[in-house]
Amino acid sequence: MNCKLLPKFPIAVFRMGWYGIPLVVLALFSGSLSAQDIHYSQFYGAPFNVSPSLIGIFDGDIRLMGNIRNQWASVPVDYRTITLAADGKLPMAENGSFFAVSGAFNFDQAGDSRLRYVNLALGGSYTRLLQPGLFATVGVQLGTSQRNFDLNGLIFDEQYDNTTGQPNPNTGNGESFPNLRNGFADLSAGLNFHWQAQKEALLVDMLLKRSKLDIGVGVHHLNRPNQSFDERTTINLPMRISPYAMATIQLGSRFDLVGNLQGQFQSTYEEWLAGFGVKFHLDTNPGQRLAFQLGANYRFHQIGDSYSPAIEVFYRNIRAGFSYDVNISEFDVATKGRSGPEFFVHYTIRRVPKIKAKICPLI
Prior knowledge:
By secondary structure, the chain is mainly beta.
């Protein structure tokens, strides 16, 4: 099932739709509802959700990013995820090392319960030059999160009418919910190594020497926050460990091979997401970059879950990507193979360096 990372849910609540079969729309309530970690098929388009150590790992000075994902709208127990983020580099030290700071907003809404997750996070990283073309980065991110849900869209077993064979939402649901929202602080950290073929003391994305590799890991929910809706109980959100590798291999003056791999491990849940693409450069002149990339991503755990054809466009300071998930799990009995679209865009700002004026003496 192309689902989000779910720690645990003890009781299932069913909704009867015109499909004529029960669909699980909200799983597990036992004094609390479990949180889900958001994810993207184009995970490389939302780097802070992969690891805080990717803060500042780009060619430029300021980076603005946006992501949106709409999943399972055809069921319809859709998931909608939105991310807005930005990062910027602080002045570089003489040894080529630098600090970077970031801010991010995440919004996620899931299912008929409209289970919402809203997160605001600030982050920072330190990148040290190990040798020309090789960098190591450590990053941290601290956020405040709130989760809430709505009962109006749910049907419970007490509301099922045996006479008519249909649910009656006007009857009582027989449940007691002590709280419909909760909030908590969330801490993440990560480590990244960046290698580039261009042997410089700067993070660059040169159009003539384009091979590069980022490899690292992100560890999320380090403080294991309490995510219970019931103040009488404590349910800690399990840590999520995300190793990854993102590589570009230059094949010629106009072609690159691109590969991305991410693992996600949270409690008993695990998944892998692998991506592959070919990038075509139409214009490699400085300041006039134009390229497009064709590829696909594949999500799997024990068995295949989904694949998503993807396309990216690179134009000057803009990078934009679009993909569409095709569900191949057992849940395709409801989705009929359809999952949903995903889109991201990055905009990079490069400051013009100040030129020190040289005053020549009058003769």
